[in-house]
Amino acid sequence: MQNSMPPLGALRAFEATARLGSVTAAADELSVTHGAVSRQLKSLDKHFGVALFAKAGRGLVLTHHGERLQGGVSEAFSRLRNSCAALKHEVEEAAFTLACPGSLLARWLIPRLDRLHQELPQLKLQVVVSETDQPGKSLDASATLAFLEPPWPAGVEVIELQSEHICAIASPQLAARCDPTQPETLFANKLLTTASRPQAWPQWASAQGLGHAALEEALQQGQEFAHLYYLIEAAVAGLGVAIAPRLLVEDDLTSGRLVAPWGSVETSARLCLWLPGQTDLLTHPRRSEPLAAWLRRELGATTTGAVSG
């Protein structure tokens, strides 16, 4: 029984016409012309070798053969519509899970989280602390927001949001004892570091034209913290001079809890939204693009309101 199955488009036109009792009504529902539906119906008559509709006044009625076909076709399209509607509902109702490093979550995203929920309620966003150093690899997250340096790992889609800038920060009281025109004067203080960003101080010092030997000597007398969040709070407490992404301390600089007398340095890292390479319906671009656009707006507002060092 080769070619026993007619084109799906013709069956769709038949189902709509049989259900609505009118070629015109079927054409309106399917967003096609009256002639397109008529041609589809004629192709079915030719395929089966029998007439499926007969004229009845200005309308159409099913023939015996048409009624026989309608039973199976109507049931099949009804199940298709129900399945599609159920899947669409599932996708729209599912939460979008955003993974984020704890320091970025606590110091930048959480203060803006209520506004994000209000402006993107359809996203049904849930935020979790990222548990991996490889963004986009977690199967439990719809996306990951993180700073990393290129090249990007294979198997993920990367939406770049902003370049990273780092700055040396201190409490106002400690900074008052340093000369903002002489960056090397901060070496007289304890330097605070974090294990997650060992390259930050060398990057900043090199951009400032400071000697490697002087930095190493100062770092040997410094103090290391396990997490960036603790490092920044130690700087607020006046324990020393810390190095941190400016984005994470911008609110503190604005409020005066911290100062950055020696300015900021751009690094090769980028703040990115990372999506799993095997994108499924729950991480579909239609869901991630509004979040990326919202993040860019917020990051632009942060940059506009930045306090110059």
Features:
309 residues, alpha/beta, Arc Repressor Mutant, subunit A, D-Maltodextrin-Binding Protein, domain 2, 8-stranded mixed sheet, 11 helices, 10 strands, 47% helix, rod-shaped, disordered C terminus
Structure description:
The structure is a single chain. This protein has 309 residues and is of the alpha/beta class. Among the domains are: 8-89, Winged helix-like DNA-binding domain superfamily/Winged helix DNA-binding domain (Arc Repressor Mutant, subunit A); 165-268, Periplasmic binding protein-like II (D-Maltodextrin-Binding Protein, domain 2), CATH 3.40.190. The protein has 11 helices and 10 strands. The chain has helices at residues 8-20, 23-30, 34-48, 64-93, 102-119, 172-175, 200-207, 212-220, 228-236, 246-255, 285-304; strands spanning 53-56, 59-62, 96-100, 125-129, 143-148, 156-169, 191-194, 223-225, 241-245, 264-276. The strands form 2 sheets. Strands 4-3-5-10-6-9-7-8 form an 8-stranded mixed beta sheet, with helices on both faces. Strand 3 (96-100), helix 5 (102-119) and strand 4 (125-129) form a beta-alpha-beta unit. Helix 1 packs across helix 2. It is rod-shaped and about 100 Å long.
Strand-helix topology:
Blueprint: H1 8-20, H2 23-30, H3 34-48, E1 53-56, E2 59-62, H4 64-93, E3 96-100, H5 102-119, E4 125-129, E5 143-148, E6 156-169, H6 172-175, E7 191-194, H7 200-207, H8 212-220, E8 223-225, H9 228-236, E9 241-245, H10 246-255, E10 264-276, H11 285-304
Parallel strand pairs: 3-4, 3-5, 7-8, 7-9
Antiparallel strand pairs: 1-2, 5-10, 6-9, 6-10
Helix pairs in contact: 1-2, 1-3, 1-4, 2-3, 5-10
